[in-house]
Amino acid sequence: MKLRIGRNKTKSIRIPLPRGLARGDRPILTTTDTLMTWTFESGQIVSSPIHDFLRNNHVDIGVNTEIHYAGFTENPAKRPIDRKHRGLSDVLHNVSNEEFDFFIIYNLFNVHSYAENNTYGINFSLPNSLIDEVRVDEEGKILEGIFIKYFNTAAQELDKRNEIRQLENRLRTLLYKHKILSVSVNMEIDDESEYYNFFSRAVSPRRRNLFRCYLNEGNAVIDELDNIQQLLDLEKTSS
Question: Has this prediction a pTM greater than 0.70?
């Protein structure tokens, strides 16, 4: 099978037939720009988006996924795909629709509060959903601001200064109201596909995005981390 990637790049791939399917029983394959359809002699028709086919069959084509926009919404079913959403409109306007396909990827984060008290020999890690130390809407806005700063996308350049200022105010509130010194992020999709190798103009392609955000002289700072142990060590020293 030969795939056309982007405007003028092609790649040949080979997918083995399922066991028990004789060579003469091969279905007829037809394609569009986005869909693959198999028609069997029995009359059965199976269709699949091309990207689902590649991902489910673990076919790598040498293309990573660029992040153009990071955002938080209380209405994930409709808000991200609403053409009135300026973020989506800016991305579609500034990035070639002919050469690239666009994905909306939803992430649900498990937010924990971690603390250690060496004097009393106490340490704990509790989910924010249990203790409700930070309101869920505020939690989402903090993560949104952190990812805007981390990925530093061109599509969000116009509002970035205001978004970072709001992030710094929220980090300041975490520090003085809740004694939270930093926010650490470990984002990794539980899938080996290259579709989840994320990158941006500020971040090289990687499957795991591991970093820490905190205030330094009033400014929001991002420190990239190499591994989970480094993250745990930093949490202990900053508790």
Answer: yes
